Amino acid sequence: MKTDERNLVGALAQLLVNGAEISEFQTILASIISYSTDFRPELIELASRWLSANYTREFPNETFWSDFQQFIQQNIDLGFALIDGKNIDDIPSFYTEINRVYMPHEDWKIGSLDGLDDLLYGGFGKFQSNKNHSMIWKDIAYSKNALGIETTIAYYQGKLGATSPFNHHHFQHKLKELQSGKGQTYFDIVAEIIRSHPKITWIYQQTAIG
Fold first, then answer.
1. Partner of 208 at 20 to 30 A CA spacing, among 55, 87, 184, 186?
2. What is the average per-residue pLDDT within 90-107?
3. Of the candidates 45, 94, 90, the residue with the CA atom closest to the CA atom of residue 70
């Protein structure tokens, strides 16, 4: 795999998640076709199809996303993971989506923040032998809202139940911080974990979370 090939796929992902100008997108596609002997046939075929696509519809539309997801799934050596933000409505569905993307062939699943952190260190899951990978988070604004203040309050309150084995003082403090407008939402914590892994390139709509 050539570095330039992976960089070009990453550039396409950036344009898709940020809804860039169509002309900018088409310029990259044309450059891929121009240097077709340097790239894998699947990438050339994808670029050719997209270059001749109907751009009168919303861009990028679900057809583009479906094409792109199929391409990265068939070319795992490129090291891209695509998370669909609209599959995330709460904390359990967040882990369902993470497991769908990262743990499809494992007979166990992750379901906690610590588990997410361990996953991103590598050693197991889809990218166990490729710690340097790119996480593409489609429709991240939807996920941010789903894992926002209300969800996080409910999460902390669940840790404070009478029979909860967790540190009540810790979670009471976290709850008060959040209610005062100073604390982190569940999404903020997830984002912090992802950013703590410098070998992971996180691709998402910049205007959605800054």
1. 55
2. 95
3. 45
